[in-house]
Amino acid sequence: MAFALKAFPLLLLAALSVPIQAASPTFYRDILPILQARCQNCHRKGERTPMPLVTYRQVKPFAAAIRKAVRSRTMPPWFADPCCGHFSNNPSLTKQEIAAISAWVDAGAPAGNPHDAPPPVHWTKGWRIAKPDVVFTMPVAAKIPASGDTPYKEIIIPTHFKKNRWVQMCEIRPGNSMAVHHAVAYVRPPNSNWLRGAPIGVPFSANQLPTPKLRRDAQWTTSEVLLLYAPGSPPGRSPTGFAKFIPAGSDIVLQMHYMTMGHPMEDRTSIGLVFAKNPPHMRVLTLQLTNDTFTIPPGDPDMRVGVHGSIPNDCLLLSLFPHMHLRGKTFTYYLDTPGKPRRTLLLVHYNFRWQLHYRLAKPIPLKTGDILQAVATFDNSGNNPDNPNPSVAVSWGDQSSSGMMIGFFNVAVPAGIDKKQFFVRKRQPLK
Q1: Which pTM does this prediction carry?
Q2: What region, left, alpha or beta, does residue 287 occupy, with left being phi > 0 and alpha being psi -120 to 50 degrees?
Q3: Highest mean pLDDT: which of 72-76, 232-236, 313-317?
Q4: Mean pLDDT of 369-387
Q5: What tens digit of pLDDT does each residue of 158-187 get?
Q6: Under 8 Å CB-to-CB from 198, ≥6 apart: which residues?
Q7: CA dihedral angle for residue 84, residue 41, residue 386, residue 67, rounded to 10 degrees
Q8: How many CA atoms lie within 13 A of 115 on its CB side?
Q9: What count of Cα atoms within 13 Å lies in the side-chain half-sphere of residue 362?
Q10: Is-contact 263 294, C-beta < 8 A?
């Protein structure tokens, strides 16, 4: 009995020292919130991604593939090097989120208790923005042939706006996402002579236009860009107090670049607009740095192409959007301010299939005379799996097999300043 009394405290201490096992992650409690925050914006019914990730039944068969994708950081897609810049739309998972998904899959992907699930996210059906105040759809479908390169097509869509409109959000929705390589929506104000005499509401290409001037007009324009769309790119969203401007009586000109897929197709792309609730104090302009004079030698694995421009007036830098074609390798934006060290704003390891906008977490004030530079590198070697032909020299061209180098960027200026006024080189202090 004495022995037992002496041993009991030791046994009790031994029992208390056994580690308590943390509960294994479950779908409803631990994984679904991650999917809602990071994945469902694209992985849901009606989007171009191959499978929805909304319900347990939808997610369970892909558990191992999801674990592999998040561990390798191929999903969610994000190509900005962490060396430079901070971005508000970075969807990258944290180490803790990746560990939770891995532990969940390792445990057999248990469902858990449905009562632990967060409330479902109420997405706008058919849109990634809030419900549009107005939707414009191509009145006539564009015809896409079965094969060959397709020239850009333009479609002029009258807005019939009776008053000026400020646009807070906008989204281009391809009618046939398999066929649309990219799209640009331009604003043609009523006083613009651009493409006057071209057909209204009917898709056309430059080579179909009757005069040399119209054919030239279809190649370049100084009109304001409302939105750019490319595979993987997000909708346009401006911060509160910032917006894009569409004057009363304007037209939207959609520039469409289509891809052939081996059989004839059609497309009727739409653009949805959400108007600002109150007049903004800042106007958003889309500008670009373009180099169209380069030639990439055959087999060159690291061809460097640069372009720079001087900021004509004070503004706020909001976002960056690099655009290249199949041989794109990297794209870097630099800011040179007199008397200060060069600042690297963004370094992208380019992916042609996921062309993303990079929204600065904090807008950067740009001063008159600051230099914004873009530097791209191209891989025209056989080591580039996307390279259609490493044995040829490559220059600028509209088709994906050609080269392209454009550094788009969004700036904000006082609401009363338009693009033409912004480029008049006199200081426009921010209000």
Answers
A1: 0.89
A2: beta
A3: 313-317
A4: 97
A5: 999 999 999 999 999 999 988 998 999 999
A6: 154, 156, 204, 209, 214, 217, 218
A7: 80
A8: 0
A9: 3
A10: no
Structure tokens at 167: 């646009």
What confidence score (pLDDT) does residue 14 get? Answer: 34
Q: What one-letter code names the amino acid at 136?
A: F
CB 96 within 8 A of CB 31: no
pLDDT digits (tens, 9 = 90+) for 341-372: 999 999 999 999 899 999 999 999 999 999 99
Return the amino acid letter for 362.
K
176-to-153, 208, 265, 321 alpha-carbon distances in Å: 15, 23, 8, 23
Q: What are 83-102's pLDDT values in tens digits?
A: 999 999 999 999 999 999 99
